[in-house]
């Protein structure tokens, strides 16, 4: 227990206020040791403790009193009158000494308090001088000599792609807090402020004025350039069709006339009702090119409740949808014939067939699409692609880019057979769980998700850019697989094999592919077209995290880079193109690779490239290579589990 008098308490408070490096504490200790004084010097991490013992109450410096104590200790006898007179005299002397000692204690505490004041003054002076030293040093900082034009280029690298949120911890608001020069530079660049996000919480009159003030600030700083705005409601809030809500919607719609992109996240029925009852006119959409809609609310089937805000946007070409209910897809009315880019993501809560039907129905309305991206992700239970009916083929000759992300189980052949993209140039296929590529339609598969090369063949025939992530191909599949894709110039592949120690764990392994790409090269002049993927100029692979023979593996990649560089050097097709003959990129696992390992592998590969060839070698870092239970990279995906 710490014993504190009035002045002692002031000493402690003084120490806490000024954060003095010296702390004194007088505390009551165990029996036999009365008090202990602890001194802690925090700056030097030194702690000293001195204890003061107290003798027995039956022991004094007076022999007569000590004799009386020893005579009557542990007895029931009472001292006689002469002895009592002696004890009374001793008691009076003790009381007088206590009074004297208490006075000295108060005097000592006053002195200690004065010393603490002096210590606090010294600490304050030291802190001030240290701050002044840093201020002087900051005047010599090289960044102060950079002109605003260079600062603006540096600041431009601080922004995350597609990042809407503005807060005090990120650019551009963070840059404005450093100094006036930085603030002036940040404010003077309009595109720093073009993307803003609004989270609509509980609505009241004060919040409306806050939103209006922020919008005015954004408009002032962006000037005449177009903006991108994201508006999202809050789960659990009740947005009735009040005057406040209507006023807020109208305030935003007036701002839409300056927007090239609008993002809506709709999580509640009340907010949706407010949106559809405040239509957006054509004049408010004159610059609108991109719309992103995330609906976690089921749009009613009644046509009067369909989402029609952007059906008259005459410049709209890009639509991005994130849907929890597949029926919403055909209840969102858009200028279908204008669309050139369509990206849709389903969280499957009603099964894959329903979502696939709605997606196909939407595609049939879009005759001018150039790029299609779709993701089917499992919801609360695993989804299956099993279906009982044949679909009428969707033929989209205008599509040149297709990206599919599959998080379901089953046979994907019927999906491929229902799609026809005769002019496809770029194919990106990503499996959430390992997907096996088998040779024929009825061949057995060891994976829950599989697709046959027989159905993929037509997609690969004229592909120039191919990405295959989390696929499993047996050794005998590689050769026919890539022989069917002779025009591929860019290849990104993550080939998986089962881990021997854990059948449920998959690891990256590109051994067979690297071997084929290296060995099947030209042997005679004019025979370069006989090589596997003869036009390949860009290759991205994933470093096998389970391998420990790093030098041997680096040499293997080095031989690959040398062989492909020399192949492209003599290739007529390659000579007709500018840039390097070969670009090799290797991705490393963030959890299983060190910076020194990455550097050594890259250096070993680079040293083996031919001196007469223009070859680039790069490395990047991936978050994880563990595909046992992967999850898409999205901050919205986990909401469905709450």
User: Proportion of β residues?
Assistant: 15-25%
Unreliable runs: 626-642
SS-based class = alpha/beta
Give the overall shape.
Answer: elongated
> How many individual helices?
17
**Rg from Cα:** 38 Å
Oligomer: single chain
Strand tally, please? 22
What distinguishing features does this structure have?
17 helices; 642 residues; 3-stranded antiparallel β-sheet; 17-stranded mixed β-sheet; alpha/beta; single chain; elongated
Structural write-up:
There is one protein chain. With about 650 residues, the chain is of the alpha/beta class. Among the domains are: about 5-140, no CATH class; about 505-625, no CATH class. It contains 17 helices and 22 strands. It has helices at about 5-20, 65-70, 80-140, 150-155, 175, 180-190, 205-220, 245-255, 270-275, 350-365, 415, 455-460, 475-485, 510-520, 550-570, 570-575, 595-605, and strands at about 20-30, 35-40, 45-55, 195-200, 225-235, 260-265, 290-295, 320-325, 340-350, 370-380, 395, 400-405, 410, 420, 425-440, 450, 465-470, 490-500, 505-510, 540, 580-590, 615-620. The strands form 3 sheets. It has a 17-stranded mixed beta sheet that branches. β4 (about 195-200), α7 and β5 (about 225-235) form a beta-alpha-beta unit. α1 runs parallel beside α3 (about 80-140). The relative contact order is 0.04. The model is unreliable at about 625-640 (pLDDT under 50).
